[in-house]
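haha ok so turns out i had the wrong file open the whole time. this is the CORRECT one, sorry everyone. sequence first:
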Amino acid sequence: MKGLKKGIAPEVYVAFTILIILIVLGTLIVGIFFPAKEVDIEFIRDSYAMINALKTARLFTETSLDFSVYQTIYNNSRYGGYFDISQVPPERKITNELFPKCNKIMKNFDGCTTKTKKEYKDRKIFEGMKYEDEKYFNIYPVGLLQCILSNLRNEKTGEIYYGLKKDDIKQIDCDFKDVTEKAVKGFQEDNGLPSTGVVDKQTIEKLKEVFASKWGDCSKFFDDCEDNIRTLLVWEPQSPDENKMIEELKKGIANEMAKYTQDYYNFMEYYVQLPNYPESKIEIKNQTGFLNVSINSDDMFSITSENFKEIEKINLKISPEISKNYPIRYIDLYKLGREIYNKISNELAGKKCEEFFYGDKIYHKKDISGFVVDAEIFDMETSNLIVRVHLNEVTKPYPIFNGKDTSFEYIKLEFLIKLTCT
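then structure:
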């Protein structure tokens, strides 16, 4: 058909016009009945930050519980399972009073045999000492003598009395040969004593005096010096029991947790009040192969801030309850300690005192149920033997603070057994 032009049909114009009118009317109605609100971006940001502050504070507390459990077990195990040894009766505490026992070196002795000990006694190297006076040395006297002399120098020449250097383990052989006698004579001469080469009581006292003046509280001595000079706990037939061990763990964990929770936790300028976890709110259950530790509080994780403008609109709190499992066989270690206690008590009680000597090994790195057991004669009193027992769980080391720095240590338990000998 000629004369017609292509374009948009009239009905389309009508429909489009009606749609525009409806959109305009709808917008007006919504504007009238539902006024637009300004989105508070700052409020949303602050809320998000506060929620994450609470979550992060809780994660911090969970990690604090980990370190508190490890540290408490480390601390308690060094004192026979007790947290506060001040509450233990004096008769159950024995303090190792001699200056460093050189345990770090003594553990590596190769020549400390029964023959060696008998030899120096027969030769009367330690002349003038009564049997009970030998506790001055406590472990192997010749080895300890060599150890001490290897850590003292002639003030004029600067030469070490014994050996090449103080940490040369090979020089400590527990054998009183000519080189040891020469070292003793040199020390005696330098300190105004008769140069006899015999370690009499006067020489021993001077060794102690000079050693103390050089090393003081032994803070500069071997890394494990604090293991050598401290108070150790004597176990009794029925004490401590398993419940006491758990009770002491609760005390220690509460004490350690307080170090972490006493201050606010800071996250993006928001401060979270951390709960207080008292001993009464700590539960410990011994499960097969692990400890379950649960802590709770009357307080909550609660948020506060330097800017309280928006805080008043939100009340953010989360539960303080935390429960975790630790693959630590600490109570199993205690139960083995009880077995060792009973076995040693039965085997040694009533024997003659002269059958034993300081440092005699009862157990040496003996593997029992996956634990390593060491036991030795620690001290000797009139009619009494003191046995020192070490139990070590060597599956996995845990992070602890050893008094000087943070290190990884295996779980262990240490205690004394006091026996009667004739």
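Residues 99-238+331-420 form one domain.
again sry for the mixup
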